[in-house]
């Protein structure tokens, strides 16, 4: 089926260059991209960010109510 899609000049240029490098057609590149997005969005599973927090005692008392610049300065002024 034929359709018209408006793309930014830069995106089209990047896609054409990628198609050339991969020795494929722009049509195939677009179809692959659309299939990937459709599969991801219709799979019924959402991305879940894993909990990467660490155990600790929470916010230290000296930083309660502190501004970010105070916290940042304390972090970067500590010696390893």
Provide a descriptive summary of the structure in words.
This protein is mainly alpha-helical and 80 residues long. The chain contains 3 helices and no strands. It has a domain at 9-42. It is 50% helix and 0% strand. Helix 1 (9-21) packs across helix 2. The termini are far apart. The model has no long low-confidence stretch (mean pLDDT 89).
What is this entry, summarized?
This is Type II toxin-antitoxin system VapB family antitoxin. InterPro entries: VapB_antitoxin (IPR019239). With 80 residues, the chain is mainly alpha-helical.
Count of helix runs = 3
Structural class: mainly alpha
The largest sheet, given as strand count, sense and whether it forms a barrel, is: none
Helix content: 40-55%
> What's the β-strand tally?
0
Query: Can you tell me the residue ranges where pLDDT is under 50 for at least 5 consecutive residues?
Result: none
Through-space gap between termini: 62 Å
Proportion of strand residues:
under 5%
C-alpha Rg (nearest Å): 24 Å
- The average pLDDT is 89
| Shape, principal axes of CA atoms | elongated
Compressed to H and E, one letter per element, the order equals HHH
Protein name: Type II toxin-antitoxin system VapB family antitoxin
Organism: Haloechinothrix salitolerans
């Amino acid at each position: 089926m034929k359709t018209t899609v408006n793309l930014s000049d830069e995106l089209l240029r990047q896609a054409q260059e990628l198609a050339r490098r991969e020795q494929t057609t722009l049509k195939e590149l677009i179809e692959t991209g659309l299939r990937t997005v459709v599969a991801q969005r219709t799979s019924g599973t959402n991305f879940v960010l894993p909990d990467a927090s660490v155990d600790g005692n929470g916010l230290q008392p000296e930083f309660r109510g502190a501004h970010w610049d105070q916290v940042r300065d304390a972090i970067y002024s500590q010696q390893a």
